[in-house]
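Problem 3 from the worked examples.
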Amino acid sequence: MSRPQLKDAWDAMRILKKFSLQQVRDAIEHTTLAQLKTFAKRLVIAKALAEHVDHEEVTYSLLNDQYNPFEQPINDGATKQNSGRQRMWQSMRILNEFDAGQVASTSDVSLASARSYISILKKAGYVFIAKSAPRTGSIIERAGEATIYRLLKNTGPTRPIPKASGIYDTNLNKLVKFREVKRKANVIAPVTLGEAHDYQ
């Protein structure tokens, strides 16, 4: 596995926390279970992961998410500049269904940044609301309830880039324009002055 592939695998493991190698394989691209098994063994030896064997099923859990399995940090100017959005996009691809708080915590960005990027992706049709947060009830009743989003378009590993009229998807090499918001007009039935209405 190349270093970018290893980084994607490690990011996926950190987000999933408890996982099988097949789950990691499904979350990232261009890798095999054999390559992931070799990488996981390295992480177990380094005590970054714990291995759990139940009959023939092998799963792993995260022990140290601060561990750096790479000799040197991977960063060039372009990646560093947009690393927050790249991490958010990676989290969304792995989680598939999420709220803004989950994206923020797994990407190490602020809640406001997560909400903003999710909103942009929603306008372009990449994300949709799977479950809306309740708008009624007391603060206590609504505590812990958040809007749940689902990733609709998982086009590839590179984050979509917000533009003025849409988002530029480097995975597709094209600009995806924002959807027009259609507002329903409130139609009020005409009432003639002095007209009697029987509501019974």
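Problem 4, a separate protein:
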Amino acid sequence: MSLAPSETSSQRTAASETSSAKLEYPDNQSKSFIEEDKFYNELDKNIYEEYKNAAFSMRKKISFNEVPDAELTFKMKTKLGGEKMNPTNSLHIHPNRQVYFMASFHQNEKEEWHKYVVIDAETKKVLLGGNHYHLYWNPYK
């Protein structure tokens, strides 16, 4: 890395520290948080609750930069399809921020329900979430 003639290495360091200080959710990889099942069991079910009799559910403690892959895995396992999420609107969240990704899928003979939530491991605030409902067409009938 070469520095501009008027820029010192301490100025560059200070600038990067300032930019990370502006993040609402900075890097917290060095901190330890409870495992995902314990977190789910303690979670207020008004915030998120898996579907009763869910055909498939996921609970993962991951870095924020892994959320698009986790969401895509959920979509593929539940045959929802679609594109990988683009978290570029979440510039206030450091990519290494620890989060809980939880998703649930329920299906009956006529309908399917999908939902997911991303919760910050440190503040326990919901960062992202979504749901999807559609009629189910059974190809075997």
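Solution to problem 4. The helical segments are 9-21, 36-42, 67-77. The two ends are 63 Å apart (CA to CA).
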